[in-house]
Structures are given as structure tokens and as C-alpha cells.
Specification:
Blueprint (H helix, E strand, L loop, with lengths): L9 H8 L6 H6 L1 E7 L2 E6 L14 H17 L6 E12 L10 E10 L3 E10 L4 E13 L1
Antiparallel strand pairs: 1-2, 2-4, 3-6, 4-5, 5-6
Length: 145
């Protein structure tokens, strides 16, 4: 954003950067933001062998990164232009292992509640047929810019 442009509400900030280089971590890990609504976002990715752990499955950090992004960005959609956030806590549960054969996975993040100083959100990571691979809950601090 330029100095002459007024700050945007969170949902508009995300829409503005949805396809930009500002979401470079997702590009590096092979996932992208595909849906944005107030209190809800969806990320999609296709885990490959480049994110495998030594056991021959997708590293848990891949799922955690998707889920953290979904939890945080869901809260981001509800912030004012004067607010920012940061993850305080992320609790991830792994339900089944992913492999390169899993195909496209979706992390759907939703806001549970949002107050002046804290936000609470959750996310689920599923495959194309709806099988659950991981889930998370998150606590986020809300700050004034």
C-alpha cells in the first residue's frame, strides 16, 4: 500500500495480496489462498516429495503451516484497517499421514470468536473426498497498528 492510499480493512488487505508475491511462503511450500469471506478462508495445496520427512510421508510442518495460515487469515478478514494480529498459540492434531498421492488438500479456517485483544479460530485440513488429515485451533493476539 502506498502512503497516499488509506489503510484497508483486513478482508480487503487479503483480497489485495491474494495473488501477489506477498504470500511467498505459500508459493515456496506449494499452497495458495483460494477463498476469502468474512471470518472464513480456504487455502489449497498439493504436497509433494519435496516436503517429505525421513519416514516417507509429508512432514507435519506442512500441515501446520497450512493450518496456521488458515487460522490467522480467517481472523485477519475481520480486522479493521488499524488492527494487526499474531499467533499466540497453535494446537495441531494429526489424524492421518499425507503423501504425494494424497493430491490436493484444503485448509478451511473459520473464526470462533473475536474480541478487542484476542481472536480464536479453527481449521481443518481435508483431501478432495473430505477425509480429515489434520485439524487445529489457534489463539491470536489482536493489536493496534
Amino acid at each position: 500500500m502506498s502512503d497516499t492510499m488509506p489503510p484497508l480493512p483486513g478482508i480487503d488487505q487479503l483480497r489485495a495480496v491474494m495473488d501477489s508475491d506477498l504470500l511467498a511462503m505459500g508459493r515456496t511450500l506449494g499452497f495458495r489462498l483460494v477463498e476469502i469471506a468474512e471470518g472464513r478462508v480456504v487455502f489449497e495445496g498439493s504436497p509433494g516429495r519435496e516436503v517429505y520427512n525421513p519416514l516417507g510421508t509429508v512432514h507435519g510442518g506442512y500441515a501446520a503451516a497450512l493450518l496456521d495460515s488458515a487460522c490467522g487469515c480467517a481472523v485477519h478478514t475481520m480486522l479493521t484497517a488499524e488492527q494487526a494480529y499474531s499467533t499466540l498459540e497453535l494446537k495441531v492434531s494429526y489424524h492421518r499421514a499425507m503423501t504425494a498421492e494424497t493430491g490436493v488438500v484444503r485448509a478451511v479456517g473459520t473464526v470462533i470468536s473475536l474480541g478487542r485483544r484476542a481472536g480464536f479460530s479453527e481449521a481443518k485440513l481435508t483431501d478432495a473426498s473430505g477425509r480429515l488429515y489434520a485439524s487445529a485451533t489457534s489463539t491470536l493476539i489482536v493489536m493496534q497498528r
